[in-house]
Amino acid sequence: MKTIAVIPARYASTRFPGKPLALIAGVSMIQRCYENTCKCKRFDKVIVATDDQRIFGHVTQFGGKAVMTSENHQTGTDRIAEAIQGINADLIINVQGDEPMIPPSVLEELIDAMVESKADMGTAAVPFDIAGADPNSPNAVKVVLDNKGFALYFSRSLIPFPRTGGEPVQPLLHWGLYAYTRDFLQKFVAWPQSPLEKCEKLEQLRALENGARIMVIKTKHRSIGVDTPEDLAEAEKIFLAQ
Question: How far apart (Å, rounded) are the C-alpha atoms in residues 226 and 235?
C-alpha cells in the first residue's frame, strides 16, 4: 500500500496569522513538523500543501517538497484532495502543520491500524491526564468512543456532560491527525460542509454526519497542538528542555 503524508499549511489563520512560519527555538513550525513527519519511514512521500507563496518558498528553501493549492478551500482535507491529484497513493495521512511534536511511532501505529482494520478513515487521541491539556478549553478538541474504538462525537465543548450523580467518563484529547483511503477522501470532499462541521469548526464531523465511521487509536504519547501564541511559547519551552 503506497502511503503519503500531506501537511496542509495556510498563512491566514484567524487565531494566529502566519503560524506555519512562527519560530520554535529558532526553527519554523512547518519545518519542525515536516522533518518530524519524515522520521516515519513508512511514507513514500511527504509534501506540504499550501496556498501561500511565502510558505511554499520557505519549505523548498529548507529542502522540503511543497505544492501550491487554491485559496478557496474550507478545510485542510479539501486542500489535501487537490494536492494529491496526479500522485499515486492508496493511503493518505493528514498531519496538521500546527502539530510539530507528533511522535513518528504514532504515525506508524495509525498506518498499521488502517491497513489491519481496512477502515476508511482514522485518527488518534490521548487521555487528558497524559496530554497535560485543559479539557475545558475550546482549543482542546474532545472525542468520545464506542465500545469498538470508533468515534461517537468530537466537540470543542466538554463531553460527556458531568451530571451530578452520574458515572464519570473521561473524554480523550483529539490530535490533529487523520488517515484516509484515497477512495474515501474523494467521497469526503464531494460532500458539502455539514451543519455540525460549520457549527464546531471541526471537519471530521462532516464524515460522521454522512454516516462514516472514524477509527480512533489511543496513544500514551504526549504532543502539543499550537493554536495560539501562548501554545507556541509552551512548545518552545519543551523543545529547549530536550
Answer: 8
3 state SS of 234 = helix
SS3 195: helix
CA–CA distance, 128 with 142 (Å, rounded to integer): 9
Burial of 169 from C-beta contacts in 10 A (0-12 / 13-18 / 19+) = exposed
**Contact at 8 Å (CB) between 29 and 232?**
yes
Nine-digit cell at 63?
Answer: 529542502
pTM: 0.91
* Residue 169 main-chain phi, psi, to 5 deg: -130, 120
Spatial distance between the Cα atoms of 207 and 215, rounded to a whole number of angstroms: 12
What does each C-alpha distance from 31 to 46, 114, 201 come to in angstroms?
A: 12, 26, 26
**The Cα angle at residue 35 between residues 29 and 36, in degrees rounded to 5:** 85
Average pLDDT estimate for 136-142: 91
**Angle (CA) 186 48 241, round 5°:** 125
Degrees, nearest 5: CA angle 236-36-173: 70
Radius of gyration of the chain (CA): 17
DSSP code of 150?
B
- Angle subtended by helix axes 76-83 and 182-190, to nearest 10: 120
d(CA 211, CA 221): 30
Q: Are 202 and 139 spatial neighbours (Cβ–Cβ below 8 Å)?
A: no
Cβ within 8 Å of residue 60, ≥6 positions away: 66
Q: What is the pLDDT of residues 55-80, one digit of tens each?
A: 999 999 999 999 999 888 888 899 99
